[in-house]
Amino acid sequence: MFRAKGIYFATALALTAFSPVDAAVPSCSSSDVQCLTGVTPGSTQTSVTRTVVAGIGPQRKSPSRIAVNIGKYRVNGGKFTSVAGTVANGDEVTLRVVASDSHSTAVTQMLSIEGQPNRTFRVITSADNPGSQVPPPPPPVIVPEPVPVRWSKYGKLTLPVDHDGRRGVDEIEADDLDGYSSIYWYQPSSGQLTQAGHVATTGETVFWTPVNGNGITPSSSFPRTEMREKLTVGEYRPNWKLTGTHIQKATVAITKLPTAISAKTRTFLVFGQIHSDDNVPPMKMIFQRLSSGATEIMSNYNTKRQSGFSKNSPVRVSIGLGEKFNYEIRVIDGTVTTLVNDIVLDVRDMSATWTGEEMFFKAGSYLGNNLETATGYGEVVYSNFEVVHQ
19-44 burial string, b = 16+ CB within 10 Å, else e? Predict the structure, then answer.
């Protein structure tokens, strides 16, 4: 049984015989634990991780059997498997299935947990004609591929410390970046070990951020080692608006997260984001550690032009510490699409909320923890970095 905010989503072991590929015009069902629409045919899709109610006998102490009819599942951040197993009460379960190769077609994965009703994870591919009832896929990229960008041509660097005696964070302007290196930001030589033990390769850049960094701003008490985009190097303006096409994509590895002081504390960092001039980020790419110890990526959207009105992406991708992955932040005429390893996390039209506001990209290591909640540091290693505005 999946549980979220007091709502229980149950599953059962008996797998009813049915075709996992829906022949009729597909649609979501109230029995779905999650339903994804408009996905790319043949793509691999992963469900949101949910806590399950399971177990047999008094106080549910005996584990329940668990199985899926197609695809794979994972318990508590372990390996994905198609083999039936067991699950305990309070475990976290993630589902994975491959979408149909055909358009406007649903693949339905049934999850069963002994003693609970069946639940389904449904994946519906995008329509192949405008008249279909299935929502269209994310906007296509109709601009040239982004090109590699040197950091000194991208913007300024914000450091997690205040060493210059001025109030606020220390900053390195773009013109000075080609000759700059410190413990917080550097290009290691091939084979060099970073503090987290990552073996560097040619062309990588390390963003290192300790939780005890004293470089804070009026709007945030969390340390960050982060690049701030400037369309014109040396000038804060002009920035860009949601109209047009704006893409940031990169290959990156999160090699270290801070260690939580309390078992109930979440540790996470932001490695890429869209920021606005009014000091609220419309979108953040977040790498977080779950209570099980597993790590995953999600995107987070501010749905109003003020903090506190955020929604997480419906899809999250499991990525381990030190594992390289590709991400893309895509803005096309107000619609923001986030992807990790070509898996769509979310597609969200932000134009109504953010029309007229000027934006800029950020990239690096922005901690979601400080000395009040964690120890240690966060480390992010960029291997490739590309941007386009059109």
Answer: ebebeeebeeeeebbbbbbebbbebb
Are the beta carbons of 69 and 155 closer than 8 angstroms?
no
Reported for 173-177, long-range contacts at CB under 8 A and 24+ positions apart, including other chains, are: 173/234, 174/230, 174/233, 174/234, 175/233, 175/234, 177/151, 177/152
Q: Answer yes or no: is pLDDT of 61 > 50.
A: yes
Q: Is 176 helix (H, G, I), strand (E, B) or coil?
A: helix
Q: How far does Cα 170 stand from its chain's mean position?
A: 28
Q: Where are the alpha helices (DSSP H) in 105-191?
A: 174-177
CA count, 13 A, side-chain hemisphere, 83: 4
- 231 Cβ neighbours under 8 A, 6+ residues apart: 238, 239, 240, 360, 389
Q: Is 256 helix (H, G, I), strand (E, B) or coil?
A: strand
Q: Where are the domains of the chain?
A: 2-125, 147-389
Q: Tokens standing for 155?
A: 């913007």
pLDDT in tens, 215-269: 766 667 899 999 999 988 767 677 899 999 999 999 999 999 999 998 888 899 9
Adjacent-strand bridge partners of 381: 206, 253
Which residue type is seen at 176? Answer: D
Per DSSP (E only), the strands in 176-289 are 185-186, 205-210, 224-229, 245-256, 259-260, 267-276, 283-289
Contact 68, 109 (CB under 8 A): yes
Say if CB 200 and CB 188 are below 8 A apart: yes
Please check whether the domain covering 2-125 is classified as CATH 1.10.10: no
The single-letter DSSP state of residue 60 is G
pTM above 0.90, yes or no: no
| Architecture category of domain 147-389 in CATH | Sandwich (2.60)
CB contact burial 363-380 (16+ within 10 A = b; e otherwise): bbbbbbbbeebbebbbbb
Going by C-alpha positions, the residue among 53, 74, 32 that lies closest to residue 116 is 53
CB 113 within 8 A of CB 14: no
Distances (CA, A) of 58 to 54, 55, 64: 12, 9, 13
User: What value, to the nearest 5°, has the Cα angle with vertex 337 and ends 333 and 341?
Assistant: 145
